[in-house]
């Protein structure tokens, strides 16, 4: 696999056909997935390293120009035009990689990545996690009995935390902290929203000075820096664990939202009057076409397929 394409994929700058090419390559071999995980770990850590840099780039550039003013002018050749900026990025990552990997391994950092299927993984403390596809999680557990630290980079994870009152289990995601002792709960993190749903036990969620304590059947959403505590009535969130879609008086827009995520589909509700029509049903091991057929028959709406997209009207 071309290194340039992998880095474009990391940066989310690939086209749809390139996404498919990378995903097929990842699905073909465990060694491919391990290679990509290592590259992803190095890349993410390099961004943190760059943030911590104390070099003043402007001053360095002025010093460079001062030393080179006497050099005769020649026609500039852009480095990225000659070699490709992706190759430069890849080279920088690989040059820094050895040092960073050594540092990370010394801290016992591990990264889990789910690509086009869910990932079920046990952790060293006896806890377990289930990653929804397209999710990335890293963790570091101190060998001397300190805190159990986890970072959710992106995506969705269900946690079943082994009880240990002496070692809090702490999850961090973009400034949001989730602390538990022993419980089970779901965390979903996107660019615009973080959501925590508790199934058992107690979970403490904090952001800045805001602190919310959640119990069974409750959820908290974090959007634009604000925490909101709600009762959870949605059963669709755990579809990736149960392999079934359970709608219990669920509005159509919510079912469509989950189906789009689960099947990587493009379903649109064209008729606004249909958005809040509720359904109570259950789908298990059904194709998307079959699910939409049943939905259409149930709420008396037309389902139109156009290529890979669907329209409900």
From TrEMBL:
This is FecR family protein. PANTHER family: PERIPLASMIC SIGNAL SENSOR AND SIGMA FACTOR ACTIVATOR FECR-RELATED, PROTEIN FECR. It comes from the Bacteria. The keyword Transmembrane helix applies. Residues 113-204 form the FecR protein domain. The keyword Lipid metabolism does not apply. Residues 245-311 form the Protein FecR C-terminal domain. Gene3D superfamilies: 2.60.120.1440, 3.55.50.30. Keywords: Membrane, Transmembrane, Transmembrane helix. GO terms for molecular function: sigma factor antagonist activity. InterPro entries: FecR, FecR_C, Ferrdict_sens_TM. It comes from Arcticibacter pallidicorallinus. The chain crosses the membrane at residues 83-102.
């Amino acid at each position: 696999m071309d290194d340039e394409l992998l880095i474009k994929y990391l940066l989310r700058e690939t086209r749809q056909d390139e996404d498919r090419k990378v995903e097929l390559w990842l699905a073909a071999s465990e060694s491919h997935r391990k290679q990509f995980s290592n590259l992803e770990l190095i890349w993410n850590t390099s961004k943190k390293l760059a943030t911590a840099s104390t070099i003043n780039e402007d001053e360095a550039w002025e010093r460079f120009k001062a030393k080179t003013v006497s050099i005769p002018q020649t026609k500039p050749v852009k480095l990225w035009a000659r070699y490709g900026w992706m190759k430069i990025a890849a080279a920088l990552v690989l040059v820094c990689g050895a040092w960073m990997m050594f540092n990370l391994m010394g801290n016992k950092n591990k990264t889990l990545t789910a690509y086009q299927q869910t990932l079920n993984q046990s952790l060293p403390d006896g806890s377990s996690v289930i990653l929804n596809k397209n999710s990335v999680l890293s963790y570091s557990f101190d060998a001397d009995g300190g805190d159990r630290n986890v970072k959710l980079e992106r995506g969705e994870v269900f946690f079943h935390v082994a009880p240990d009152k002496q070692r809090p289990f702490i999850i961090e995601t973009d400034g949001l902290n989730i602390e538990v002792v022993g419980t089970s709960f779901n965390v979903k993190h996107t660019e615009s929203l973080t959501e925590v749903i508790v199934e058992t036990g107690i979970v403490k969620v904090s952001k800045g000075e805001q602190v919310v304590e959640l119990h069974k059947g409750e959820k908290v959403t974090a959007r634009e820096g604000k925490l909101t505590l709600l009762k959870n009535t949605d059963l669709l969130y755990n579809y990736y664990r149960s392999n079934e879609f359970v709608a219990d008086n669920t509005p159509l827009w919510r079912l469509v939202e989950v189906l789009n995520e689960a099947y990587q589909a493009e379903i649109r509700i064209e008729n606004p009057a249909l958005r809040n029509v509720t359904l109570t049903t259950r789908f298990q091991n059904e194709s998307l076409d079959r699910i939409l057929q049943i939905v259409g028959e149930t709420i008396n709406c037309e389902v139109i397929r156009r290529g890979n997209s669907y329209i409900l009207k």
